[in-house]
Design goal:
Number of domains: 1
Radius of gyration: 17 Å
CATH class: Alpha Beta
Largest sheet: 7 strands, mixed
Order of helices and strands: HHEHEHEHEHEHEHE
Strand order of the largest sheet: 3-2-1-4-5-7-6
Oligomer: single chain
Shape: globular
Number of strands: 7
Number of helices: 8
Distance between the termini: 41 Å
CATH superfamily: Vaccinia Virus protein VP39
Length: 229
């Protein structure tokens, strides 16, 4: 393989598109509410136009089925939430929740999160970035797929406002240690933990059923919160 044929680690995707089957309700939500909640990755992102107001912007990368994102948005109406997810059933489920609960401060990209952050989000415009329970890619040969890596930190530096934060949570201890080590190398980010390691789960991050079940079984969960200096 020549030098030009080598894969740039910064461009390695941290996910695999899974062909999950959407429920009838999720399909109906996507058919009925797509234009209401979803943004086109082909168009420029204008936060004020998209949400119809100015408010601090929180971006969630990989929101899964959207339960936590819907909960946070409903509990924090003074924030705008931008959820990015590649799996269509999760997008449909979130739209169903937003419509059922009358939640108006969420917009969605069904697209690659890194591409959206790089190409659509204005620098120094994001109040917070959430990454909750990302794929840990636990096999050593797959560690290169983990999203928290030097190129991702560079992206955070560009997009976060001064004082903005990055919050990651994982139930995989090795990944927690890896993220802590990676984030700690960036002098532009300050660990919010007084001990320099992990933070207690903040009230704004709801506990999922999966997480609660794991804790009852003695499994650990680690939260990392770093702010931009």
């Amino acid at each position: 393989m020549t030098e030009s044929q080598k894969i740039d680690p910064a461009k390695i995707r941290s996910y695999i598109r899974r062909q999950g089957r959407a429920t009838a309700g999720q399909k109906l939500a996507m058919e009925s509410y797509w234009d209401k909640y979803c943004l086109s990755p082909e168009q420029d992102f204008d936060a004020e136009q998209s949400f119809g107001r100015q408010a601090p912007l929180i971006v969630e990368i990989g929101f899964g089925n959207g339960d936590s994102l819907a909960h946070m948005a409903a509990a924090n109406p003074d924030f705008n939430y931008l959820g990015i997810e590649v799996h269509r059933p999760g997008v449909g489920h979130l739209m169903l929740l937003l419509e059922q609960r009358g939640i108006s401060n969420v917009r969605i990209y069904h697209h690659d999160a890194i591409e959206i952050l790089e190409q659509k989000i204005v620098d120094n415009s994001v109040a917070g970035v959430h990454l909750f329970f990302p794929d840990p890619w636990h096999k050593r040969r797959h560690h290169k797929r983990r999203i928290v890596r030097p190129s991702f930190l560079e992206l955070l530096q560009k997009k976060l406002v001064t004082g903005g934060y990055f919050h990651a949570a994982t139930d995989w201890k090795d990944y927690a240690k890896n993220m802590l080590a990676t984030l700690s190398t960036d002098v532009s980010l300050k660990n919010s933990s007084p001990a320099g390691d992990y933070c207690p789960r903040p009230d704004y991050r709801p506990m999922t059923k999966f997480e609660n079940r794991g804790l009852n079984l003695g499994h650990g969960v680690w939260d990392l919160i770093f702010t931009k200096l």
